[in-house]
Fold this sequence. Notes:
Layout: H1 2-22, E1 28-36, E2 39-43, E3 46-49, E4 55-57, E5 61-64, E6 69-74, E7 79-82, E8 87-94, E9 103-109, E10 112-115, E11 127-130, E12 135-148, E13 151-165, E14 168-173, E15 177-180, H2 194-202
Parallel strand pairs: 9-11
Antiparallel strand pairs: 1-4, 1-6, 2-3, 2-5, 5-8, 6-7, 7-10, 8-9, 10-12, 11-12, 12-13, 13-14, 13-15
Amino acid sequence: MRKACMLLVGAAALLAFSVNQSVAAPEKVGQVDKLQGQAEASQGSQKRDLAAAGDVLFLDRIETGDAARMEATLADSTKVTLGEHGRLVIDKFVYNPDKQGGALSIRVNGAFLFVGGKIEGPTGGNVAIKTPVGTLGVRGTTVWGGFIDGGYGVLVLDGEVTVHTEHGLVTLRKGQGTMIYGNNAPNKAAPWPDRRVKAAVATISFK
């Protein structure tokens, strides 16, 4: 009986070791460039504080604290800046430096600035930014998004963005923005007043 128990214990330990070995570590997809205040990333129940030069991993759930800012660069040179009380998840990242294109999908809540990298490719269409109000499709883009002036705003600083919600679609070009209020369709593309532009930029600016 004692020998049988020892064999069972040994088999269980071997099985646990095999399972642990088969679980791949999360893939590194980028690196934190700058950090102001506090930010943390979690994978399942595991949490870690982020710091400048720290790794950004695939499926990290990143959250920023009070008055915080975080800028990260992904492996394809895409840059994402997150404002305070923001949340970010990179849920698709397909990139081969020896090939054009790839695929990138991020989920973001809170003020952000997105500067497109190599995954966008020459024609775009490979990047989706999922926000609380809908999805942004980007092309050669620098775009800001976040809650502002009682609604959700999207402002294109360079390139072209398609804002697609359940209630409508609008295409924005450089210098144009839109506002989404409640469950309404996005407003028509139009330049924003200077006051709103400055307020938007302030949400992702470092001190």
